[in-house]
Every structure is written in C-alpha cells, then in structure tokens.
From TrEMBL:
It comes from the Eukaryota. Belongs to the iron/ascorbate-dependent oxidoreductase family. Coiled coil: none annotated. InterPro entries: DIOX_N (IPR026992), IPNS-like_FE2OG_OXY (IPR044861), IPNS-like_sf (IPR027443), Iron_ascorbate_oxido_reductase (IPR050231), Oxoglu/Fe-dep_dioxygenase_dom (IPR005123). Keywords: Iron, Metal-binding, Oxidoreductase. One of its GO terms (molecular function) is oxidoreductase activity, acting on paired donors, with incorporation or reduction of molecular oxygen. This is Fe2OG dioxygenase domain-containing protein. Gene3D superfamilies: B-lactam Antibiotic, Isopenicillin N Synthase, Chain. Residues 268-367 form the Fe2OG dioxygenase domain. It comes from Centaurea solstitialis (yellow star-thistle).
Length: 450
C-alpha cells in the first residue's frame, strides 16, 4: 500500500477524539452557521502608476480598508499569474511527498530544519487542533543557500530587469556567466552585499534592490527534485516588493514618509509559509487554522479557489469569497502597534473542508529581530518593544497558555484591561469585541490623518 501524504491527525490526536467523542457535550465549532460570504475591499494597484488623483485615491482606499477591515484584496499587483501558478505547482509537489518524508525533512526537500509543521502540539481539545500542515520558511536560509550555491559555481552576473512602464529596474536576475560585473560579494548581518565593478552605473534603486540579489541568483540544479528555489525566490522577491510598497503607502497615509520599512524589513527578514489543508472528515469539530492575528507588519496571501478563510468584521465572523486574480493583504500586530491602533490586526481563521484539499501561501512582512517597534504618534498605546521580544513572548504564551496574547501584553494605558483580555482571548469571538472597543478612541484621530 502506498504511504499517505496526509499527516496522521486522527491517530496522533486520538485522545482528543476519544474524550470528546465519548462526552455528550456539543463540540461543534460553529464555523459554518451564520457566517455570510463577503467580498473584502478590492483595490486595483495599477492606479498607483497613474499618479495624480487616481493614485491618491488608491492610496486612500488602501489606508481606509486597513483601518476599517484590516484586510483587503489587490489586483494588478505586478506578480504574473505565471509565477503564481508555478509557485502553486511546486507547492503541491512538495506536499505530495509522504508524511514521513516531510516530517523527517527528507534531504531532497532542502528546507531548513523545523520548517515542517502540522496539527497543534499544544492542543488540549479538538477546537484547538489545526487540521493543516505547513512549511514555514525563514527566507534568510533560502537566500543564503542560493547565494552560496551560485557563488561556488564561479562566475555570476546580475542584470537589472526593467519594468516596462516605469523604466526602473523591477528586479535583478542572476545568471552564471564568464562575464561578470560584480567585483566582490560579502556577507553582512546575514545579508549578501554586492560590490559592482567600476563602470557599472549604480543608482539608488540598484542599491536598494541589490540587497535582495541573493534571492534571484539561485537556480540550484543539484536539487532538481525539490521545490525549485528559483520559483520560490522569484515569488518571494516579487511579493516582497508589493509588501514594501504597501507598507510605505500605509505609513505615508499616516503622515509618515520614512525609510523605516526599507531599512528594517528586508526580503531576508521575512517568512514564507506554504499551507495545505487536507480534506477533513470532522470539519464541524476542528478548524483548518485556529483564530489568530499575524505577528508581522503585514501579510500577503495567495489562496486557491476552494475558500475557507474567515475574518472578524464588526464583531462577526464573515467568509472571504475567493478571487482568482487577487492577493489578500492583512494588517499584522506590528502595524497595529506602529500606527497606534489606526490600522487593525484582525482575527482570522480557516475552516476545514470535508471533501477538498486547499492550498495557500502567506508571505509575512517582518523586520529584523532587533528592530524596535514604537508608535509613530505621541501618546502611544503600546510600550516600545523589539520584534525579538514580541516573537519570544508569543512563543512563551503559546507554550504556557496554549494560545497567543500578542499586543494586549504591551498595552500601557490600562493594566487591568490587559488582564481582562488575557481572560477573554480564550473565548473565540470576544476578543474581536474587546479590540473594537479599544480602537474606538482612535477613530476620530484617524479621520484627521487620512
Ligand atoms: O490559509 C489561509 O487562508 C490563511 C493562512 C493564515 O492565516 C496564516 O498562515 O497565518
Ligand atoms: Fe494568518
């Protein structure tokens, strides 16, 4: 018999199934009834290139959706459907490996150790069990791997690939060649820095993009059987450009034109998470992914047509209608803190599907660990913290309590409120209301800024 690629959820979490199956209590997670399907605001990013009123209106809509929804969709984002399809194809191939190959990080998979995750090790009841598997990949490792491979092959060349409409380099492509324009390549703070030969015209935009060059110079023929790093890196690099642009727009709409994101969020400080939600025979009892907020500045999600993503809007769960052309953007905790609660990091979850598997890819736009997060306004709601501290706190809370607390731990305005939220957060749904109450005080404030 062929070995299955699905994780052994029922066998491994047998205790949870036995206990709840035997008890009489109503264990339905209620993720299907009364959840209406909505279209999340859809924004056409090609309007940004038009400048003038159209461009300004587009930016305003991005900020408005981030404030009112914490979620929006974008079309004409600059990532070709070809890349998106290739990425999905490679992702499906990887998940088709047997469960043991994935869990043992089979050498052909070529992912950093610990990237593969499935289920919820800390679950104490079925509603805490995620019926999904994922490769959660820090992009540092991937780019460095790529760079090393290419470097060891000798000569390489970087070519700027121009964006047809702006005539600026949209990205660099690396190839191995005898003719190289690179003088030397050094490593600094986990990044590969390119020094160009004299005569190569290096402009500002080259310098900014060349920081991520390692992401392009991959193409590792040794690992032909793996998720091709070229596809993944091409995807990650393009998505990172969209993420940086959106972050800058969001900052600008708060009246903060700054290089904060360019300086602190590099492609190599970000994460790519490939999710697979296998068909689930007990879809009324478990989630595909439990309610959570993302711990980053913003997330860019590419999902297939199956659907299952839900989010909290005005205190109610709603289902997101899939749109083939669109990428979904959601604000993460760091942007909520940075914007002093103007932009909302909204709870979302994925419901499991009885018959059909579902795929999604999330790009988490994160700063380096030492980056300090602090409100860009005076009278900040949250105390200053480093991204390292925040991540550590999230991990500790999950270990200790079985769930993340996140931003409420950093709220300075009201000590006892933090305690309330720690308590409420256990109960799905209540956190949405609590957050709404908090953010209310900032609404007038925002209106003045946008
Ligand atoms: O798969 C999805 O639709 C959502 C994934 C997600 O929220 C995450 O990976 O953080
Ligand atoms: Fe998420």
């Amino acid at each position: 018999m062929e070995e299955s690629s699905d994780p052994p959820f029922v066998e491994f979490y047998k205790n949870l199934f036995d206990t709840e199956g035997a008890s009489n209590k109503n264990d339905d997670i209620g993720a299907f009834e009364d959840v209406e399907e909505w279209e999340v605001p859809l924004i056409d990013l090609s309007r940004l290139h038009q400048g003038g009123w159209e461009g300004a209106e587009c930016k305003r809509e991005i900020a408005e959706a981030s404030q009112k929804w914490g979620f929006f969709q974008v079309i004409n984002h600059g990532i070709s459907s070809d890349i998106l399809e290739k990425m999905r194809c490679e992702q499906m191939k990887v998940f088709k490996k047997t469960f043991h190959e994935k869990a043992d990080n089979h050498r052909n998979l070529n992912f950093p150790a610990g990237s593969y995750r499935w289920g919820t090790p800390s679950a104490t009841c079925l509603r805490q069990l995620a019926w999904s598997e994922a490769f959660h990949v820090p992009l540092t490792d991937i780019s460095n791997m790529g760079a090393l491979t290419s470097l060891s092959s000798g000569n390489l060349d970087l070519r700027p690939v121009l964006d047809i409409s702006t005539r600026k380099p949209a990205r660099f492509e690396g190839i191995c060649t005898k003719q190289t324009q690179i003088d030397k390549v050094t490593s600094w703070k986990g990044q590969w820095i390119v020094s160009w030969l004299p005569g190569f015209e290096l402009r500002d935009e080259h310098a900014a993009i060349s920081r991520s060059w390692a992401c392009h110079i991959v193409g590792c023929p040794l690992f032909a059987d793996t998720l091709r790093t070229t596809t993944m890196d091409q995807f990650a690099t393009m998505v990172s450009e969209v993420a940086e642009n959106l972050a800058e727009i969001l900052a600008e709409q708060l009246g903060h034109k700054s290089d904060f994101f360019k300086e602190n969020c590099w492609p190599s400080t970000c994460y790519l998470r490939m999710n697979r939600y296998p068909p689930c025979p007990v879809s009324s009892q478990v989630f595909g992914l439990m309610p959570h907020t993302d711990s980053d500045f913003l997330t860019i999600l590419h999902q297939d047509q199956i659907g299952g993503l839900q989010l909290v809007k005005d205190g109610k769960w709603i289902a997101v209608k899939p749109n083939k052309e669109a990428l979904i953007i959601n604000i993460g905790d760091l942007f909520q803190a940075w914007s002093n609660d103007v932009y909302k990091s909204v709870e979302h979850r994925v419901v499991a599907n009885k018959q059909t598997e579902r795929f999604s890819t999330a790009y988490f736009f994160c700063p380096s660990y030492d980056t300090m997060i602090q409100s860009c306004f005076e009278n900040s709601i949250y105390r200053r913290f480093s991204f390292r501290e925040f991540r550590q706190q999230v991990q500790d809370d999950v270990k200790r309590l079985g769930h993340k607390i996140g931003l409420p731990s950093y709220n300075m305005s009201n000590g006892h409120k933090c305690f309330d939220v720690k308590f409420h957060v256990k109960y799905v749904g209540l956190i949405g209301l609590t957050k709404k109450a908090w953010s209310h005080q900032n609404l007038t404030f925002l209106e003045n800024h946008i």
